[in-house]
Amino acid sequence: MWWADLCTSFSSLHQRSDGRQAVTEEGKKSRTPRKTHKQRVTEETAPPELLTFARNFKKARLEAGLSQYDIMRLTGISQTYLSFLERSLHSPSLSYMSLLARVVGKPLHELLEP
Question: Does pLDDT of 20 surpass 70?
Fold first, then answer.
């Protein structure tokens, strides 16, 4: 039956979207490259603008009387990611920087000034 053959061949092509290995019907492991849209940075590789944004964002958040949890509830950005941003471990997108600036009541250019 062509339908059974199609289903069998499709199941052997199964790959997980989380980047981990998936076992196919034939018992072979297939590898998919790990997909990440966020790159982890270190103190040595962080650009000075990222360090400046992280420091100024945390200062503005505290001045606004907001916790990371408050920011999470207002924006939907996870508290863990916010912590990584404040410690310059992740490089945020421009849209995230703009959103975070609005939440703390500062224009984005002020958060990027040394």
Answer: no
